Amino acid sequence: MTKYEVRRTLIGQLPYGADLYDGLTEIVQRENIRLGRVQGIGATTHAAIAYYDQNAKKYNPLEFTGGMEILNLQGNVSIRDGKPFVHVHILLGDPQGKVFGGHLLPGTKLFACEVFIEEFWESIPSGEDEELVRAYDDRTGLNLWNSGYLV
Ligand code: ZN
Question: 131 CA to middle of ligand 1, Å?
């Protein structure tokens, strides 16, 4: 089993009006963060998320057009198609405090967002390929990591 430690942490904000998914992708690709963790809070003016239907093997989109709180943004960075790729899930709170959530899609526009992005690296080479690379998984219909099983 490969073991990793944090190499660096980027802490900052994304600007008003930015697309959350595209902004995170731009950061990890610019910084060449090939393995990482994304965490954040903030608010959206428009949110685009999805629920993955396991039987139909497709994402069903959901949109929230009013202002919503980003109660939690949690995700990871790995490699897909040779490039750093973000996979993020988000919890959104409405004006009554009700919570909705799902898989983040492009099209989520920010009111504000404060993010921490941790980059991991293999501190002691294991001799195994340390990169987690996404590949199509027939059983789930998802692009999952092709290694890194812990059990
Ligand atoms: Zn997801």
Answer: 19
Please give all residues whose CB falls under 5 A of ion ligand 1, grouped by chain where several chains appear: 103
Quick one: tokens of 106? 């492009």
How far apart (Å, rounded) are the C-alpha atoms in residues 14 and 23?
7
CA of 101 to the centre of ligand 1 (A): 11
Dmax (CA) of the chain: 52
Helical ranges in the chain per DSSP H = 20-30
- For the chain, domains (ranges, CATH) are 4-121+131-145 (3.30.1330.80)
Give the distance (Å) from ligand 1 centre to CA of residue 100: 14
Quote the ligand 1 centre to 28 CA distance (angstroms).
17
Q: Write down the pTM of the prediction.
A: 0.95
First to last CA, the chain: 10
Angle at 30 between CA 64 and CA 101, to 5 degrees: 20
Instruction: Say how many CA atoms lie within 13 Å of 87 toward its Cβ.
Output: 15
25-46 pLDDT, tens digit per residue, is: 999 999 999 999 999 999 999 9
User: Residue 130's pLDDT is what?
Assistant: 72
